[in-house]
């Protein structure tokens, strides 16, 4: 598993290098969402509001919300509507209610047509108001409704009788008469406070007088999710799944990137790294079949997780790296040999680096003299699925050239075993990487890092001009 941190640059690289595949998957997701919308019938939602007068606590409003969507209210609404195959249990999934600020309960109904949605919302509101009034007892029990008024009249009569008793009491100023009038005054005050409390409690009994704030408005558009929303959601989901799949594959990748790991998998030593200018390959090694054309069309014939090429020096700097590799190879061999340069099939960077190594070995001026020159190299391609290396003939060793981050430890071990089966010892490994070449300097313009030297007459530094 790769331990690289997932950054926004990584996601940007996925979009930049896999935009064709992501676009195709987004279109497939949009088609999937459109097909899903065709299977889901359109729905419409209408809402009506009910005002609850008086003072209501939050828990009381929540109780009224539950009552509005209760089975009793929905069963009565379904029976009144008389829709075929639609009962109270079916309306439970179509009706919702919520409490808003200002003691307002909003009841929403969803149906397959705007007309039905409007009828459903209005009917549920009507049944809710009727059922709530019946619970409180408004206009359902005349005797209970008349009891507060009768009690009020009785209190008034009692207060009047107390006043008469106080007036007919002993007009003298004895202690007993004063105490009697005081007790009667206290009794009259208590009765008056009871009447006041009864008047204050009267609005609570009128809470059942709910006000319907007009009929439900007929909806003009579909309720979410609409067909457009499902189409866009399908495209977005498929796009995100594709990006997440790329990230997961990169995290789970077992391709070797570190040079010590590559050397350990092949069981040999690293001779060095070489640079290859980043340029579009001239041919596609995947073939020309239908699958190869589809891969090229979708842009998946090249890897996306390779790092961006780094800036490099000029051609002379790159040539020095190849010469150093050839020099180390010459020092490691006891005598001049002919070696096979083994390149995994499909590794275009390694193939170009191997060709450059062969050219550098052939251009060695010491190869024609009596001194030891560079080994003679011959490039062969080896399939990583079923590696097969030519048998030992004139060559007596193998030099493996590959790019980092392209092959797993098992694939490299298979190449090493194929070399051993053919009688070739892996004498070294060369890792190739892409770099961004500098633009060529114009003939009449000196390089940026050139130092201009002013030739003057005179002696050395410190002399007179």
Automatic annotation (TrEMBL):
Primary location group: membrane
The regions listed as transmembrane in this protein's record are 21-40, 228-249
InterPro entries xrefs: Bact_polysacc_biosynth/exp (IPR050445), LPS_length_determ_N (IPR003856)
Q: Specify whether Cell inner membrane is a keyword of the entry.
A: no
| Residues of the Polysaccharide chain length determinant N-terminal domain | 5-71
Q: Name one Pfam family in it.
A: Wzz
Membrane topology listed for this record: Multi-pass membrane protein
Q: Where are the residues of the annotated region Disordered? A: 354-374
Where is this gene product found? Cell membrane
User: Could you confirm whether the keyword Cell membrane appears in this record?
Assistant: yes
Q: Which domain of life is it from?
A: Bacteria
Write the record's keywords in alphabetical order, separated by commas. Answer: Cell membrane, Membrane, Transmembrane, Transmembrane helix
As for family, the record states: Belongs to the CpsC/CapA family.
Name of the protein in its database record: Wzz/FepE/Etk N-terminal domain-containing protein
Species of origin: Streptomyces yunnanensis
